[in-house]
Write a structure and sequence with these properties.
- The protein is α+β, with helices and mostly antiparallel strands.
- The chain has a domain of 117 residues: Electron Transport, Fmn-binding Protein, Chain A (Pnp Oxidase, Chain A).
- It has 4 helices and 12 strands; from the N terminus they run H-E-E-E-E-E-H-E-H-H-E-E-E-E-E-E.
- The strands form 3 sheets. Strands 3-2-6-9-10-5-4 form a 7-stranded antiparallel beta sheet, with helices on one face.
- The protein is globular, with a radius of gyration of 17 Å.
- It starts with 13 loop residues before the first helix and ends with a strand.
- It binds flavin mononucleotide.
- Flavin mononucleotide (FMN) binds next to strand 3 and helix 2.
């Protein structure tokens, strides 16, 4: 019989639990979310606690942890304020900009300016899209569920509009070609 290391989460350090979760659930897709606040300041940040929820209607989820002081991250604040966010797929040419967009910058500044990425308007939502990537999902914020004593927020978005770059030239419309090389997160690294 295998000799397992055993962990009871009630007796395990938070950091260790994080390693167990993120080292075992791999790879994780990256939900790169663009938003805008009421003052028109745009925001961009990656979230690897991200997945598809359902098809009809199309829904996706992002888990946006609170900051250590309990406050909400800008992405969540903005999505609640405007009622929407945009998912941008991460591809190899811009993976470094994606990582840089996770740097905490003041609320009045935009990660689009900090990374040099280009924001373009969406069709049905206020949040902008990242021009440099081939797929965008425009999402209306459907629900924010909060879990546990720290009120850990899970945001569910309904996709109200899809954009897929025609340049993919794929035979099956909407299916991303391998050449786009979509990036995901493997343990603590983006691969
Ligand atoms: C690849 C990658 C994945 C990340 N995944 C998450 C995540 O799932 N949840 C989370 O709260 N933060 C995650 N982060 C950290 C956020 O991107 C970071 O806290 C960011 O500053 C939040 O920005 P905002 O305050 O502008 O929303 C991730 C960072 C990177 C580089």
């Amino acid at each position: 019989m295998a000799d397992y290391l055993e962990f009871d989460p009630s007796k395990t350090e938070r950091r260790e639990i994080y390693r167990l979760l993120t080292g075992s659930v791999v790879p994780r897709p990256i939900g790169w979310a663009s938003t805008v606040n009421g003052q028109g300041v745009t925001n961009l940040a990656p979230f690897s606690f991200f997945t598809v929820v359902c098809v009809a209607p199309p829904m996706i989820s992002l888990t946006i942890a609170r900051n250590p002081d309990g406050s909400e991250k800008h992405t969540l604040k903005n999505a609640k304020e405007t009622g929407d966010f945009c998912f941008n797929v991460v591809t190899t040419p811009i993976w470094k900009e994606m990582v840089d967009s996770a740097n905490g910058i003041p609320e009045g500044e935009s990660e689009f300016d900090a990374t040099g990425l280009t924001q373009i308007p969406s069709v049905k939502i206020k949040s902008p899209r990242v021009k440099e990537v081939p797929i965008h999902f425009e999402c209306k914020l459907h629900q924010v569920l909060e879990f546990g004593p720290n009120k850990h927020p899970l945001c569910i978005g309904e996709v109200v509009y899809f954009h897929v770059d025609r340049a993919g030239g794929t035979a099956a419309p909407g299916v991303p070609p391998p050449a786009w090389s979509i990036r995901s997160r493997l343990k603590s690294m983006a691969r």
